[in-house]
Amino acid sequence: MEKKNKSPKEKKGNFFSSNIKFLRRRKGWTQDDVAFALGMKRSTLSGYENRVAEPAMDVLLAFSDHYRIAVDTLLKVDLSALSESQLSQLERGADVYIRGSNLRVLATTVDRSNEENIELVPERAKAGYRTGYADPEFIGQLPAFQLPFLSPGRKYRTFQITGDSMLPIPDGAWVTGEYVQDWSTVVSGQAYIIFTLDDGIVFKIAENLLEEAHKLRLHSLNPVYDPYDVDVRDIREIWKFVHYISTELPDPVIPERQVMSMLARLKQDVDRLKRNDGRKAEV
Predict the structure, then answer these.
(1) What's the rounded mean pLDDT across residues 179-197?
(2) Which CATH number do you get for residue 19?
(3) To the nearest whole number, what is the mean pLDDT of the chain?
(4) Residue 256 located in a structural domain
(5) In terms of residue numbers, what domain contains 167?
(6) Residue 177: helix, strand or coil by DSSP?
(7) Which residues pair with 192 in a beta bridge?
(8) Residue 270 placed within a domain
(9) Helices 16-27 and 42-49 meet at what angle, rounded to 10?
(10) Is residue 100 part of a domain?
(11) What residues form DSSP beta bridges with 118?
(12) More confident of the two residues 249 and 252
């Protein structure tokens, strides 16, 4: 990929000029389109885009309202360096400066066409993921692939799960999740891959208690395991369940009639054993 030379202002962290040009072209708009929408002359807009003129605060606010991106983001973040999924999240309202939340930067990789990869996190890589989840070098060493049927512009990652807490999903299955930027959108009763520094990567059914208790309650599909709470401060990543891949078939669900028939036969066997024991006792 060709690298662009940055102006001194860009190097200092003011990306406003390059950002408004990038956003305009991304939308497929001409300078006349944007100038008309903002109520300014095309030459004035050209001056802002080419760093000839410095925008006043009211102009910055006008661009912010037009693109629905915070002024701080337009000034401080090089939008052209973001991945497609990060841009899509930004355009859907996940702007950290607008939301006032803590910034969560996801390390990611792209293919030669600048399309988001789906990185694989096998069981042997889970220990390294605890410390390397935010390290682009570590993420870049993970195996990666593409699935054409998934939605473009969103970020996915596949994790290998172990254990029997999510039966009938088999031990060793590969579970793919979609990255969740805004944790308030976690839907109770749906499955998520939750990453915390204490528990590592877990695959659970989430109960969203963030607003009232600042935590998630995690449930297993296997009723043998009790639910437990995770404080929001301990969570590092949340991925919404999309699908899983496994070489094993899940255990069959036995129909209710078959279960009742099995219980009836079992009762008959127990009664027969009791009768036999009674006869032996009489002898």
Answers:
(1) 91
(2) 1.10.260.40
(3) 83
(4) no
(5) 118-245
(6) strand
(7) 204, 240
(8) no
(9) 120
(10) no
(11) 145
(12) 249
Residue at 122 is within a domain: yes
Mean pLDDT computed over 256-275: 69
Q: Which residues pair with 206 in a beta bridge?
A: 218
Q: What does the DSSP assignment read for the chain?
A: -PPPPPPHHHHTT--HHHHHHHHHHHHT--HHHHHHHHTS-HHHHHHHHTTSSPPPHHHHHHHHHHHT--HHHHHH--GGGS-HHHHHHHHTT--HHHHT----PPP--B-TTSPBPEEEE-GGGHHHHHHHTT-HHHHHTS-EE--TTSPTTS-EEEEE--SSTTTTSPTT-EEEEEE-S-GGGPPTTSEEEEEETTTEEEEEEEEEEHHHHSEEEEE-SSTTSPPEEEEGGGEEEEEEEEEEE-SSPPPPPPPHHHHHHHHHHHHHHHHHHHHHHHHHHH-
What's the structural domain count of the chain? 2
- Asked if residues 117 and 155 have their Cβ atoms less than 8 Å apart, the reply is no
Q: CATH number for the domain including 184?
A: 2.10.109.10
Domain co-membership, 232 together with 130: yes
| Residue 105, phi then psi, degrees to nearest 5 | -100, 125
Residues in a beta bridge with 193: 203, 239
